[in-house]
């Protein structure tokens, strides 16, 4: 069991290139699996946020004037330094977040890969020239960085979700003030230290742990912040967009999701069952992009439902740092309460529990926020599991008559983040890709996100793109220049 005294984890904010001493009224961070104290961290006040933003603003002119290849080289060095420390950082991420050791290592590696991806794009970014606008008149479109970016992320993947923003923002010449979730500050502070040791100039990146209403709103409303890159829940995203309207700040919103998965009668059922189990229970179901509703054709429903329920029953719930554990705890007591409430309201309305359904009875897990992987068959289509985002290990499954019914039900959600379809009929797959109202469709594939492709939702899942070269558009302004040349 980790304790603050044993680990000495007492950390302040990261401003001006180093972690400052603990100050103010610190936040205590607890291990979601054991309740043990992991450490204490400064909870940033508006004054501290102001200091961080001013440092980032002061660092902007020099950073933005460097060549893009130099910024890319610094990002690459940072990515390599971070990747080299995955084994060292993973236990800390497990302790503060609750995920399993394997999941922590995957997350940390993915964070480094994303930085590396954007470092590579340094050699690809091109401007646009328009010749002959008028006789002797040439046009150009310049990409200019925006200035200070406020990056706000949740606790489910603290490092990857931040690196999705840092990669394109820093490459394009912006400076960043990052606010991690108030419960997952430590690995993010280490990330900032490692990037700085690898060459990121002081001030270019600040990390201000703290609460949403205090540190988050101070960042969003700060007059020197030009863009807010937000990942989190839909209600918070809506509030942030409203706050950012003052000053006409740019906003990117990566919000909640309730991704449908459609399994047709000609699908590879074992592969689909594996993808459903992984897609729903990975990270204890706490992922924006996760299979949260499963629709299966009647003709193959019995076989698929049985396979998914069996997989859920076989998953081992436990403390993330222990070997052989597949699923850690929910991140907080509140997250488990929300899940339990959604399940209770759903089951009051109907549905049958095929696996799990409650807290594990292992006394060794009594101090953590654990919940069994749960499968519910046929809850009503207007019940919470169908209409709300379920941010935990619980999967509803419905039988459908045919493809049209599946598409209609899949689209009958306020969210539009991801989706997947399993079929061996190419025409049906293409039809689904065109019809599913969301930002990503996987065909016969687990729901893996690629740095090469744009990622982002529609409807209540937000707007703007991360990943892909498309993300660069969200961290640059495109400026038109007209040149009257001497040559006619
Ligand atoms: P949340 O919205 O409560 O918090 C996210 C972040 O916003 C935290 O850092 C929090 O401190 C901050 N925040 C809260 N209130 C704020 C305010 N008023 N002003 C400024 N900042 C504020 O979300 P959560 O519950 O911590 O995270 C889970 C949610 O995130 C889920 O809905 C999930 O789907 C979503 N998510 C989306 C993506 C995506 O890429 N679309 C990825 C991961 C998670």
In order across it, which strands form the biggest sheet?
Answer: 15-16-17-14-13-19-20
Bound molecules: nicotinamide-adenine-dinucleotide
- According to DSSP, the number of beta strands is 23
Radius of gyration from the alpha-carbon trace, in angstroms: 23 Å
Question: What class do helices, strands and sheet pairing give?
Answer: alpha/beta
- Amino- and carboxy-terminal Cα gap: 77 Å
Q: How many alpha or pi helices?
A: 16
Shape: globular
Average pLDDT number: 96
Notes on the structure:
This protein has 488 residues and is an alpha/beta fold. It contains 16 helices and 23 strands. The protein has helices at residues 4-7, 46-65, 68-83, 86-97, 101-121, 158-171, 186-197, 212-221, 234-245, 269-281, 298-314, 333-349, 384-387, 403-411, 426-435, 470-473, and strands at residues 10-11, 14-15, 18-19, 27-30, 37-41, 128-134, 137-145, 148-152, 175-179, 205-207, 225-231, 250-254, 259-263, 291-297, 352-355, 374-377, 394-400, 415-416, 420-422, 442-443, 458-459, 462-463, 476-484. The strands form six sheets. The chain has a seven-stranded mixed β-sheet, with helices on both faces. Strands 10-9-8-11-12-22 form a six-stranded mixed β-sheet, with helices on both faces. It has a three-stranded mixed β-sheet with strand order 1-5-4. Helix 3 crosses helix 7 and helix 10 (269-281) crosses helix 11. The termini are far apart. The model is unreliable at 1-6 (pLDDT under 50). Nicotinamide-adenine-dinucleotide is lined by residues 152-156, 161, 179, 181-182, 211-213, 216-217, 220, 231-233, 236, 239-240, 254-257, 288, 389, 391, 417, 457.
């Amino acid at each position: 069991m980790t304790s603050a005294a044993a680990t000495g984890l007492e950390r302040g904010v990261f401003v001006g290139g180093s972690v400052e001493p603990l100050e103010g009224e610190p936040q205590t961070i607890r291990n979601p699996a054991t309740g043990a104290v992991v450490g204490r961290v400064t909870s940033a006040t508006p004054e501290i946020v102001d200091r961080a933003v001013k440092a980032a603003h002061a660092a902007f002119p020099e950073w933005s004037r460097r060549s893009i290849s130099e910024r890319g080289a610094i990002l690459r060095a940072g990515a390599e330094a971070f990747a080299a420390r995955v084994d060292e950082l993973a236990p800390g991420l497990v302790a503060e977040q609750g995920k399993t050791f394997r999941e922590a290592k995957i997350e940390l590696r993915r964070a480094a890969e994303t930085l590396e991806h954007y470092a590579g794009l340094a050699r690809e970014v091109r401007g646009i020239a328009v010749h002959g606008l008028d006789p002797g008149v040439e046009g150009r479109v310049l990409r200019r960085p925006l200035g200070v970016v406020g990056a706000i992320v949740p606790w489910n993947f603290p490092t990857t979700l931040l690196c999705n923003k840092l990669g394109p923002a820093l490459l394009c010449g912006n400076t960043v003030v990052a606010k991690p979730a108030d419960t997952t500050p430590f690995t993010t502070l280490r990330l900032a230290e490692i990037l700085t040791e690898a060459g990121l100039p002081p001030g270019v990146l600040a990390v201000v742990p703290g609460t949403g209403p205090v540190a988050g709103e101070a960042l969003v409303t700060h007059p020197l912040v030009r863009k807010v890159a937000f990942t989190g829940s839909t209600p918070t995203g809506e509030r942030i967009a409203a706050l950012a309207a003052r000053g006409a700040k740019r906003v990117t919103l990566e919000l909640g999701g309730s991704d449908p998965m459609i399994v047709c009668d000609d699908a590879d059922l074992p592969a689909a069952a594996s993808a459903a189990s992984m897609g729903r229970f990975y990270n204890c179901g706490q992922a924006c992009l996760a299979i949260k509703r499963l629709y299966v054709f009647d003709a193959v429903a019995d076989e698929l439902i049985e396979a998914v329920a069996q997989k859920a029953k076989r998953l081992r719930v436990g403390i993330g740092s222990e070997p052989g554990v597949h699923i850690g705890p929910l991140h907080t007591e509140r997250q488990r309460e929300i899940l339990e409430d959604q399940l209770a309201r759903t089951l009051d309305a109907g549905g049958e529990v095929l696996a799990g359904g409650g807290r594990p009875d292992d006394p060794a897990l009594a101090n953590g926020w654990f919940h069994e992987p749960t499968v519910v068959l046929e809850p009503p289509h207007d019940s919470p599991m169908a209409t709300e985002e379920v941010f935990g290990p619980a999967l509803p499954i419905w039988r459908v008559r045919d493809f049209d019914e599946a598409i209609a039900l899949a689209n009958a959600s306020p969210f539009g983040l991801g989706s997947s379809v399993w079929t061996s009929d190419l025409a049906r797959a293409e039809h689904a890709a065109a019809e599913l109202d969301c930002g990503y469709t996987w065909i016969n594939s687990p729901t893996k996100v690629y740095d090469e492709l744009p990622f982002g939702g529609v409807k209540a899942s937000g707007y703007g793109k991360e990943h892909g070269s498309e993300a660069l558009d969200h961290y640059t302004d495109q400026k038109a220049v007209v040149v009257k040349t001497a040559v006619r």
